[in-house]
């Protein structure tokens, strides 16, 4: 694996070397034009030692004991800077040199922190890579995050599952799907704002990471500005209002520090129709300084939320109702009600110990526990049509196609009834008649109430044929981690990270609302069609097949995973080089335990075997200092990563089958950068390439026209035509390569130009094996619960999910009177939908009756039907403005930003190919219709958006 060790880009260089003494520490603050910065506040964290810079920018701290220190430098209209230094026993005075504060370009709401080591920036014999250590927030990263990121631009096309987010030393990545639920600390911006970031696949001091960034957040109570901070925000995005209040006591004379914060975000209705938002956030931080070498902290973080989501739709639906249309709601008794509501509360409790073992060594240890439920509601139904207003049989296109097909078969056919239905549907969708365009809750209640009273499975009453369920994840996550640092000397540092996670998630579906009925049956609604003669019971042997509100229905299983990692690292410097080498060895053991006995799958119930994976990795970084302003940076990584639980168990709701040929995904990544960092010009030019192998990709959807046959224990063969299916791709290979350029140029002390260019090609580079599984298929003739479909011909197809070209050009004006204004022009192109594998597989073109290709298939016809689905390009203009005041002890900041000023609503941020017809004849017929019934579903940009923020500190 390591034969292709490659070298990477990153802008975090060696942090400060450890020096220890009792001394006076002093420095000078200057702006980018080398002018003194007066009245800036310099907060010495962990002490009461707050000072202000004088008229020449000078500040000092006196009589500091030996130790490691961190200061936060703030001034209105300037970026916050975090500075680390050490005091050693052999020095009386410590000169921090000239510290440059750069003007804030986009306002404090973004909360960018610049973390730098100490040293003379012009002295290349010292740690003169200081200018690179900026939490990865160089100009490229800033624009990509805050201007292009609003339009779903992902730098390098890398999925967020390939990164690491850490809170106080432990990972926040969920083992089931590899995602991070940022909602667990939603609204607590002022607590989690200033992370340290190891960009892309560069090595980090805190974790090995992946090919995306390592983001490390620390929430020590003493490290927040003493006093109160009130924030009020107005916006038209997911929520409309945000209010927060934070108080920090600072470290008192008895060694105690407290920080508390509360926040709320809410909207009665968001920008998308029928959505609402109601979320709270709370934080309690307690820190006890036992002595100069020992500190203990306790942090409690919780953010309960309840919000509704919006739907993707086909282009036909958007043409009728516009980009803010949402099919997930309808009126009930005159009030809007959504079927898709997310709610949950998963608090985090963390105990952290900071111990200085000696003048050269330190040890941080964290124990963390997170628990709670996340629930996602939706409608479910049995033996009745889909109640969604966008069900294809309820759209005008369905009736238009019926008319066309009928006349094609018989030109004299009577289609008057279809024509009336078509006209009615067209008028209803054009006018927005809610009886057609939204969920009809009142009708659902009437239908359930009109069901006949039956006696079955030991109960008597009316069965709900449509009801609302919650898909629940009940998590219990233990984390423990240790971060050890030893400084051999001023130029060499050894780092060791140890981590352990015990993850358990109880996954089940429960009835949320029977919608006027008395019960729902825990049975497979497709059983009578796909599995005639079978019981159809989703939990055979249970006493209560009839389910009421709060009961589990459909599925019930538990995911477990234990994972341990060791991550040693070595950093050393010479007069011209900085080197960082990081290694990783990891072990994980994963299992599934089923609580339901599915009528088709023997392995549905009970605990599966343990699936164990050993993973290893190596990362390297080499920085060559041409001089104090010019740098060459090479970084590389080679490692493997175990599959997440949802990639390992391909259909966990009904069985314990694992993906065929599943392996750890292997990554090889490299990039090379030239960096220029001067007071007037800052630039980064990077070339990168990231390869992945052995990836397993799992997707679920509903499919028509599958044309498969299943065989039971007695050899009975059952044709399968339609079902919820799982598509599995095995041994997927991808390549992400391209170039990045970020540039800022100061025209004058107040005017600055900045820009970004990113050009990439993110492609599949092989034809992976593709498999099919289904909730309703049971086992096939070979005894497996999945069927091999052959290769999916994806080689050369573009990956979906992000624009592969992005450009931005902006201008900023920063007034010496503490106000600023700026604007950016942004352009995005080469955005694709991810190609569906099942319709590009060998099985797609194969006639199961003749075992030969379907009639009419030619290479040119396949290329026409299966061409990559490219989305339109678009450009946007964003602007921001801000003003701050210092009124005695009160600091006031007002910022405002507007994205998409020209209100471009034609940009598609993402979507997916519908895979309802999975054989060539049906797919060709649908694609050649005037009105495609199963065209792609899209999400559109919301249009113009704004964010106004008022902050008051006192």
From TrEMBL:
Q: A Gene Ontology MF term for this entry? A: carboxypeptidase activity
Task: Keywords in alphabetical order, please.
Answer: Carboxypeptidase, Cell outer membrane, Hydrolase, Membrane, Protease, Signal
**Signal peptide span per the entry?**
1-21
Gene Ontology cellular component terms for the protein in this record: cell outer membrane
Keyword Nucleus present in the record's keywords: the answer is: no
Q: What is this protein called?
A: Carboxypeptidase regulatory-like domain-containing protein
Which SUPFAM superfamilies does its entry note? Carboxypeptidase regulatory domain-like (SSF49464), Porins (SSF56935)
* Main location group: membrane
Instruction: Spell out the InterPro entries in the cross-references.
Output: Beta-barrel_TonB_sf (IPR036942), CarboxyPept-like_regulatory (IPR008969)
Q: Where in the cell is it found?
A: Cell outer membrane
């Amino acid at each position: 694996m390591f034969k292709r060790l490659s070298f990477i880009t990153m802008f975090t260089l060696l942090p400060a070397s450890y020096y220890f003494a009792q001394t006076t520490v002093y420095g000078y603050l200057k702006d980018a034009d080398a002018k003194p910065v007066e009245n800036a506040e310099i907060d010495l964290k962990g002490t009461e030692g707050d000072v202000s810079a004088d008229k020449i920018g000078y500040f000092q701290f006196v009589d500091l004991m030996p130790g490691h220190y961190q200061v936060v430098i703030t001034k209105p209209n300037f970026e916050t800077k975090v500075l680390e230094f050490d005091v050693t026993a052999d020095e009386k005075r410590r000169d921090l040199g000239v510290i440059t504060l750069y003007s804030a370009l986009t306002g404090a709401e973004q909360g960018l922190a610049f973390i730098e080591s100490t040293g003379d920036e012009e002295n290349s014999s010292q740690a003169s890579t200081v200018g690179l250590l900026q939490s990865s927030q160089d100009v490229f990263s800033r624009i990509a995050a805050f201007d292009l990121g609003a339009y779903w631009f992902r730098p390098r096309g890398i999925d967020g599952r390939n990164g690491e987010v850490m809170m106080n030393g432990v990972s926040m990545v969920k083992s089931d799907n590899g995602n991070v639920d940022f909602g667990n600390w939603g609204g607590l911006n002022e607590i989690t704002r200033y992370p340290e970031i190891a960009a892309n696949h560069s090595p980090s001091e805190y974790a090995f990471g992946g090919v995306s960034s390592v983001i490390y957040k620390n929430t020590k109570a003493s490290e927040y500005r003493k006093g109160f901070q009130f924030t009020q925000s107005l916006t038209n995005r997911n929520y409309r209002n945000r209010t927060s209040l934070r108080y920090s006591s600072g470290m008192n004379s008895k060694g105690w520090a407290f920080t508390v914060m509360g926040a709320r975000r809410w909207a009665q209705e968001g920008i998308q129709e029928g959505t609402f938002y109601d979320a709270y956030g709370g934080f309690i931080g307690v820190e006890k300084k036992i002595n100069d070498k020992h500190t203990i902290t306790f942090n409690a973080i919780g953010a309960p939320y309840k919000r509704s989501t919006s739907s993707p739709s086909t282009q036909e639906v958007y043409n009728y109702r516009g980009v803010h249309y949402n099919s997930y709601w309808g009126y009930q008794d005159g009030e809007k009600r959504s079927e898709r509501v997310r709610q949950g509360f998963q608090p985090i409790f963390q105990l952290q110990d900071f111990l200085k073992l000696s003048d050269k060594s330190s040890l941080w240890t964290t124990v963390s526990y997170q628990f709670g439920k996340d629930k996602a509601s939706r409608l479910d139904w049995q033996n009745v049509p889909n109640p969604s207003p966008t069900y294809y049989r309820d759209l005008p296109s369905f009736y238009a196609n019926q008319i066309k097909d009928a006349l094609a078969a018989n030109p004299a056919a009577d289609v008057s009834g279809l024509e009336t239905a078509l006209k009615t549907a067209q008028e209803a969708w054009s006018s927005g008649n809610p009886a057609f365009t939204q969920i009809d809750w009142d009708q659902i209640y009437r239908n359930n109430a009109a069901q006949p009273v039956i006696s079955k499975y030991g109960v008597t009453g009316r069965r709900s044929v449509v009801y609302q369920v919650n898909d629940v994840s009940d998590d219990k996550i233990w984390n423990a981690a240790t971060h050890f640092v030893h400084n051999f000397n001023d130029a060499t540092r050894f780092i060791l990270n140890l981590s352990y996670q015990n993850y358990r998630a109880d996954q089940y579906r429960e009835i949320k609302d029977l919608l006027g009925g008395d019960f729902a049956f825990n049975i497979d609604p497709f059983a009578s069609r796909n599995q005639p003669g079978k019981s159809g019971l989703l939990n055979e042997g249970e006493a209560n097949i009839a389910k009421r509100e709060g009961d589990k229905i459909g599925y019930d299983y538990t995911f477990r995973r234990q994972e341990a990692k060791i991550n040693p690292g070595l950093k050393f410097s010479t007069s011209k080089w900085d080197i960082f080498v990081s290694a990783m060895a990891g072990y994980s053991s994963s299992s599934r335990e089923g609580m339901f006995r599915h009528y088709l799958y023997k392995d549905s119930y009970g605990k599966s075997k343990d699936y164990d994976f050993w993973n290893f990795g190596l990362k390297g970084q080499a920085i060559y200092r041409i001089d104090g302003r010019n740098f060459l940076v090479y970084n590389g990584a080679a490692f493997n990563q175990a599959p997440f639980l949802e990639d390992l168990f391909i259909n966990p709701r009904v069985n314990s089958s694992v993906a065929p040929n599943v392996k750890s995904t292997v990554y090889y990544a490299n990039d090379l950068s030239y960096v220029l960092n001067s007071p007037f010009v800052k630039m980064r030019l990077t070339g990168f390439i990231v390869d992945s192998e052995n990836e397993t990709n799992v997707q679920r959807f509903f499919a028509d026209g599958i044309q498969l046959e299943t065989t039971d224990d007695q050899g009975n063969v059952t044709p399968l035509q339609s079902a919820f299916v799982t598509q599995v791709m095995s041994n997927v290979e991808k390549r992400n390569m391209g170039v990045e350029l970020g540039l800022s140029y100061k025209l004058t002390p107040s005017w600055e130009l900045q820009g970004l260019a990113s050009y990439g090609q993110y492609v599949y580079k092989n034809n992976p094996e593709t498999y099919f599984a289904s909730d309703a298929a049971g086992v096939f003739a070979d005894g497996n619960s999945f069927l091999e479909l052959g290769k999916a011909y994806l080689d050369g197809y573009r990956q979906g999910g992000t624009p592969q070209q992005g450009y931005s050009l902006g201008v900023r004006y920063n007034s010496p009177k503490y106000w600023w204004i700026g604007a950016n022009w942004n352009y995005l192109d080469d955005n694709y939908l991810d190609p569906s594998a099942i319709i590009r597989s060998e099985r797609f073109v194969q006639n199961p009756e003749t075992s030969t290709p379907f009639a009419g298939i030619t290479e040119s016809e396949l290329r026409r039907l299966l061409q990559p689905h490219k989305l339109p390009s678009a450009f946007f203009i964003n602007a921001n403005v801000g003003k701050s005041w210092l009124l005695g002890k009160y600091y006031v900041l007002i910022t405002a930003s507007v994205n998409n000023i020209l209100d471009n609503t034609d940009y598609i941020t993402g979507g997916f190919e519908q895979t309802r017809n999975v054989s060539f004849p049906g797919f060709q017929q649908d694609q050649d219709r005037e009105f495609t019934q199963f065209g792609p579903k899209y999400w559109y940009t919301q249009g113009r958006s704004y964010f106004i923020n008022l902050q008051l500190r006192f």
